[in-house]
Amino acid sequence: MNTREQILSKNYEAMCLHGFQGLRTDKVINELGITKGAFYHYFSGKKELGYAIVDEIIAPHYIGTFAPLKNSKNGSIEAITSVLEYLKGCSSRETIHIGCPLNNLVQEMSPLDDTFRDKLRGIFEAQKDLLVIALSRGVENGELKEGIMVEDVAFYIISGIEGSYALGKAFQSKKVFDRSIDQLIGYVRLLKKD
């Protein structure tokens, strides 16, 4: 890992724990044993670092999780529930404790910074678009009920995921998160044509 990647990675970890506004880049620089000059060689300031974290760490991860929906050979319901099961499986008590980094950053920075808001909204739009592809394919091939509003359903699924993370964090409970995701999986299965 090169110096720039180390700076991004360590600051991302700190941001997950303390939020963007609570992020102390000077402490992270000290922990890494690099100079401020090395930091400023790569980033003009904290905001630019935050934007890079969104672009290079958060967006690829959160969009990548949904990417299999684009070309899945499985049915739409199976493809979507596989993503939801994956989210359950990769979440731990520790990750639920700090919450969803995307959700946390949306709540913290969207009202304060247009660039953050645009970048974070772009992640949700990409997730929505991938869900719409899978749902539309399901409607077209007769797997899903006719007349479902695929974009609305996609937004509902995303809100269910993010709500599950918020509830898990509020209750400090992986079990609450898992139960919420299980209900979302049940909803997706109800979309199947009889």
UniProtKB/TrEMBL annotation:
<dbReference type="GO" id="GO:0003677">
    <property type="term" value="F:DNA binding"/>
</dbReference>
<protein>
    <submittedName>
        <fullName>TetR/AcrR family transcriptional regulator</fullName>
    </submittedName>
</protein>
<dbReference type="InterPro" id="IPR001647">
    <property type="entry name" value="HTH_TetR"/>
</dbReference>
<keyword id="KW-0805">Transcription regulation</keyword>
<dbReference type="InterPro" id="IPR009057">
    <property type="entry name" value="Homeodomain-like_sf"/>
</dbReference>
<keyword id="KW-0804">Transcription</keyword>
<keyword id="KW-0238">DNA-binding</keyword>
<dbReference type="Pfam" id="PF00440">
    <property type="entry name" value="TetR_N"/>
</dbReference>
<dbReference type="InterPro" id="IPR036271">
    <property type="entry name" value="Tet_transcr_reg_TetR-rel_C_sf"/>
</dbReference>
<dbReference type="Pfam" id="PF16925">
    <property type="entry name" value="TetR_C_13"/>
</dbReference>
<feature type="DNA-binding region" description="H-T-H motif">
    <location>
        <begin position="24"/>
        <end position="43"/>
    </location>
</feature>
<dbReference type="InterPro" id="IPR011075">
    <property type="entry name" value="TetR_C"/>
</dbReference>
<feature type="domain" description="HTH tetR-type">
    <location>
        <begin position="1"/>
        <end position="61"/>
    </location>
</feature>
